Amino acid sequence: MKFSLFICIILSLALAANAFNINSGNNFVGYWGQNSAAPGGRPYQTELGTYCTDNTYDVLIVSFLINFFSGENIIGTNIPAPTLNFANMCGGTYPGYSQLLQCPNIGSGAATCQSKGKIVLLSLGGAVGNYGFTSSAQATQFAKTIWNMFLGGSDSTYPRPFGSVQLDGIDLDLEGGPKEYYDVFVNTLKIQYFAGASKRYYIHAAPQCVYPDAMVGPWTGSALSTGKLDFISIQFYNNWCGLASGSQFNYNTWSQWISANSPGTKIMTARPTTASSTTTPATTSSTSTTRPSTTTTTTTRTSTTTTTTTAPATTSSTTSTTVKPTTTTTTTAPATTSSTTSSTTVKPTTTTTTTTPATTSSTTVKPTTTTTTGPSTTTSATTSSSTTSPNTLVFTQSVTSQWGSNPPTSQISGQVKNNGATTISNPKFSSPQNAIINGMWGLSQDANGYWVLPSWANTLAPGQGVEFGYAINSATPATFNRVA
């Protein structure tokens, strides 16, 4: 899961911006769009263009397009329009539409960034949303929709929420939903649209370090298996294979597959950085990168915290906060990497705003906490939540944002971790709140309605954990009890 709605502050020198060069090994990537904020609820996100005034960022990723197919069609067609969510930005809807946002300031900000040699991508997915394909035809059509609404297309049937600006490509932040047909989507963009374009367009993705990633691949039919992704930022944190995992750090596994099967794809190894107080505009986490002498790029991340920043007076008063605990430590790239240039990536993990026809609103609260010890005891406190189930598997959950009332809808970020001394395989959990849990990622339900770990991480060694998240129609997190 990506670390969403928090701040990464980078103090940079006032240098003239250089043009983005994917082969330089010295790139810094930032995710923008989810109103990065520390606890306390003040909006820190400013207009996109303010993050392109110096040499800090090489790539800005606008986050997120959360639904591939919304409930309204593109006018005059039977083609579903997508849903956008940019927290406190973009309050109005596109003329003739009740849900599709119109975001001219994002368009002008993107143009500003491009004029300074940076590239701007649109992130598809996020931790909360409804996305994925059920057929090859759907994937092909969605590629056409993305091309004409946000990239180099000129079909006037399609609305352009950012105006005439042509973004530089897309990011795949895939954290749930159907995983099939992304190969069709990527191939359609690359072959049918990007190949004959007047400028270069890019496709980026952010798989977890667990190999292969459940959504991105590589496996037959995945986006990565096409060999056409330009660069990936592997999340070497919050997993057993991360930078802090010693001998289990599996960079070489990814590097070997890329070298043999997709040599044009650059690798960045992602790690969160520490945010600090500053007046410099900033939005998300950062990554430092070391790049081997092969064509891959690796990135590392330090531990993540968030701190207070003062937003400019022009910032909208609508706020949204999601803070996801991340604890990793810095490790260098494998000793087998020969040359060391550096490259960086920054990334969020959760979308948590609510969009209404004329406004985008989201109410931020300080994280609430519930602590549950044992299968049936629950006590309320004030910051996070943990459930011990029964002795060695521990659930830790935080309410990262809330909106609405009677009851409110809460966005939950959590982790289940093996705190025992022995390996645990295929555990199952029940929850009395199943009926009010929505959009679960990281855990799935079996045929009997029990929550189970993902297939790629269903065995937890001591100290290993799996992250998950969901929305719930309640002010507090759900309770999970181990049944097997």
Provide the gyration radius in Å: 21 Å
Roughly what is the average pLDDT, rounded to an integer? Answer: 74
Termini separation: 26 Å
CATH architecture of the largest domain: Alpha-Beta Barrel
Oligomer state equals single chain
| The number of domains | 2
Shape: globular
Largest sheet: 8 strands, mixed
Helix vs. strand class:
alpha/beta
β-sheet strand percentage: 15-25%
The CATH H-level superfamily of the largest domain is Glycosidases
Unreliable parts: 1-17, 38-42, 273-384
How many strands appear in the DSSP assignment? 25
- Number of helices, counting only DSSP H or I runs of 4 residues or more: 4
**CATH class division of the largest domain:** Alpha Beta
Task: Give the H and E element order.
Answer: EEEHEHEHEEHEEEEEEEEEEEEEEEEEE
CATH topology grouping of the largest domain: TIM Barrel
**What's the helical proportion of residues?**
10-25%
